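Quick start: what a row looks like.
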Amino acid sequence: MIAYHELEVIKVDYNQLDIISSIIENSGRCLKKILFKPYDIVDLDDFDDVDFNKSSLNFIRKVYENCPYIEYLSIIFPSSKEHFIEFEKLLKICQNLKSLLIVLWNRDEVETYEKNGEELLKILIRSAPTNLKEIRPGDEFKFSLESLEDFLEKWRGRRALSIFTIDPIYIREDYKKLIDKYKGDGVIKNFENLHYLDFIKYCDNASFKTNMNGSNSMFSDDSDTETFTNEFLNSIPEDSDEEECSSENSNRTFIHDYPNSNIITTIYYESGGKSHSRKYIIHSLGIYPSNVKKIKRTSKNCPEYEIPDNYKVETTLEGYDIICETNYSSNGTVKFILNWKDSQGIDRYISNNNSASGVGKDFLMLLNKKTRISGTILFGFDIPCLIEARKSILIPINCKNSFTALTSRSQQNKRIKLLAKDIERASQIILKQQNFDNTKIRYIELEIGDEIVGIDLSKVNLDFTRIRQDAVVCACDEALIPRDRYRHLAAISPNLEREYQISNRRNEISKYMETIIPIYNCKIELDNVQNNSNNSSNNFSNNNSVNSNFSLTNDQSGICSYRSIKDLLNTLIPIWKKKSILNIGDNIKLKFGGDGHIVTNKYSHVMFTMYLLNEGDEVLKPDKQYW
């Protein structure tokens, strides 16, 4: 946990109560001033009753737990009983409190304003510190004439009190008479009705913006942040191990109101307790392109941050105000640029195509500084609010030609791949915004002109892919669908497997079958074949089914191919056993058949089939015939 050592002043213009509470908790218990304009607190811009009630209650508790010396305090909370109890507890503990700016947020419940005023006055009488000399109640507190007179009477004998309000009711004649009376008695030092800007003016008083007697202070506006930055900003020592991956990166605290304000302040501490601060002024947010690059890592444990395109940020280095830029070139490389004015007011710039830390190193070398700077810290690549803002931007495709104008299939495929990456990134953002957890888009179908294009965003499952391809191969074989016809079918249905994929899978199956049921070659003597052929010719001469002049020619060498029945049985018997067609001890009954009777000059092969008669009538089915 980061601690803001001996911090005495917090003055912020725009921030969240939770962030201010966190700073208070780690302030070292030395705070004397907590100043902010209650109506400008960020919580109220996107108001949520539950969150605001919780954060305001936590803020009150953090103050009385961690600020025993508080003197000037701005505070805002709803008018619930629990909040008033905690507020009274704060007054009892913080006895050094001198000035209080208090505002209630009640969703314009005007009917409760007078009740709020009575409750505040009762609490002040019971528990106000003896040092309290000034209160600035918001217009949610209305003091009736009777309750105000009762309060002032009971305040008699204490320190004279100054009351500043923005409610014009107190300029009425009856109120003026009452106020003048107690002014004369020394109960009231000052009672004024102010314009709102004057009412919160003490939050902007210059005396609260300077460091008194070397004390520390924290500010969030432009000039104050610069004072704080100049006090704590130091270059990284030469022996520091800070590269693109810095150990301090993960410990940085970011103070901001982005995008309402383009100023972001970061604070981090070294292991020895030395503090560093840096202010960023965002000139251009930039975008993450589809071919986004990431910073170079020096170890596997380093976080990787993406580098935006057209990003421009202003910061300070070695006393110079520098503007850091990143630009992507047409070939995808990133150019890191630093712009600044030298001591003579001349515009200077330096660039580096390797890394952000490289251009920072080049800048320091020009100044003859033996120091180093992390590119991530220099450019602010790790600022969370900027990262989220860029990821919410839908990036247009940066191409000159339309998809239909591309004539090369490879160019079209590259464009579709880039589109798939952009769709996947944008869909993740949309699904996250709609609270779809563990959800992603698997498949998208596009109609581009007359062509249908399918984009598969799911991760490749090789087992599932093979099952689909095997099913298609089997269907094509059983239905006798040739390659060309399947190619036409797949062209109109992009969710089908591509024909070349089916062809490759068919070849894989064939090669596998050749290993388990190999094909053997043998040579038959031509003289024997010739004699057998003549005998066959005589046998079939009566039915004229073959040519009686059939004979082997010289180009028929007598080489033939066959498969071994033994290899076939070695493959089929385990299948039959698994399906309980065969059991241990059963006799195997096989029937062999073929079409050798049609072997002629036109047909020079024999289709050989085998049946397992143990299957009964099932052998009549085509899938039970093995050939």
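That is the whole record. The longest strand covers residues 275-284. Residues 357 and 375 are 4 Å apart (CA to CA).
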